[in-house]
Amino acid sequence: MPNIEGKLTLEERQGIESRLADKMKMSACPICASSKWTLLDMVVTPTTLRAGGGFATGDPVFPQVMFVSECGYTRYFSGTTLGLIF
Ligand SMILES: [Zn+2]
Questions:
Q1: How much distance in Å is there from the Cα of 36 to the middle of ligand 1?
Q2: What percent of the chain clears pLDDT 70, i.e. is strictly above it?
Q3: Alpha carbon of 81 to ligand 1 centroid (Å)
């Protein structure tokens, strides 16, 4: 579980990087073709929008981790699928 500031622990980062290591090496950035991806240490979530564009508080959230390429292109992965526990 990420800490109170929403940051991944070292163990969580290592677990995520280990699970995706082979896949990330083989996957070049679609923008700059770099195969170097950096895992950011924050957990984020998309927000559910309601009719009219309002935010819904209290709805389930979908924790995601971000990998950023050298050009800034960002990929999101399900934190739950990667073993993060909330
Ligand atoms: Zn790139």
A1: 8
A2: 98
A3: 24
